[in-house]
Amino acid sequence: MQQPKKIIRAVTVAQSVGFFEPMVRDLQEQGYEIVSVSSDGPELERLRAKGVKTVVVPMERRMAPLKDVVSLVRLICLFAKERPYMVHSMTPKAGMLCMLAAWLTRVPRRVHTFTGLVWPTTKGMARRILMFTDWLTCACATHVLPEGRGVMEDLRQVTRKPMRVLGYGNVRGVDMEMFSRRPEVMARAAELRKEGVFTFLFVGRLVGDKGINELVEAFARLYEEWGERVRLVLVGPYEPQLDPLRPEAERLIDALPSIEVVGAKSGDELRAWYAAADAFVFPSYREGFRM
């Protein structure tokens, strides 16, 4: 009996498996075996429940040369053992390490999806290093998929390899039914909405790179004029070790009663927050879709 073709999907941290999780069932139904590679995290339990083999390979999001070498060796050993039909990586560190390991082990199909670039907002040596890592990722990949045309244009500064954007800019497509105004979502949105209050909504990591410092400062000025007739809801996790907010922004978040930090949300709860908001604000310094 012919063994199913094996596809390894790799991301740096477990929180990012949501990039490919919705596609797992469809790929399995088409006869592929899916293996997930990432750092450890509770999100992996959802994949295991779907019959996905999960392999934990710790990877650092920041520059960490010694730890990166250890991760690279582990990935080389894993790919040599699994002998996959394809390795498809997303997120920067997983992309560089997995594409290099897949190239060294002669995996025939090596795909990386760029979900945004870090170096356009950096300077000096850090910028040169980050551009080199993206060049290395592209050099080792057989297929390069920028998530949007903005990312593709930036990547042309580091590689001449052919690239393809899915549709008008995409990572996995959009489930229109999932994002429809279903009764259960709208009922929850009604609970979250505050009558007579204009709600601004941000969804993403609560870090400086996402423009949270400026967003909080701007909202504080609105609050001075409008008081509790406006509110700002921040949906997402803090990352104090990776990109902490400025102390002034943290003080404003703690001091203003109209700023609500509700933590990371997903599924219908996240969709309900979108439906409950009057305006979505997204002051990120860099995003592949250029929202």
TrEMBL record:
Residues 188-289 form the Glycosyl transferase family domain. The keyword Transferase applies. One of its GO terms (molecular function) is glycosyltransferase activity. Keywords: Transferase. Gene3D superfamilies: Glycogen Phosphorylase B. It holds the Pfam family Glyco_trans_4_4. Residues 23-168 form the Glycosyltransferase subfamily 4-like N-terminal domain. InterPro entries: Glyco_trans_1, Glyco_trans_4-like_N, Glycosyltransferase_grp1. SUPFAM superfamilies: UDP-Glycosyltransferase/glycogen phosphorylase. This is Capsular polysaccharide biosynthesis glycosyl transferase. It comes from gut metagenome.
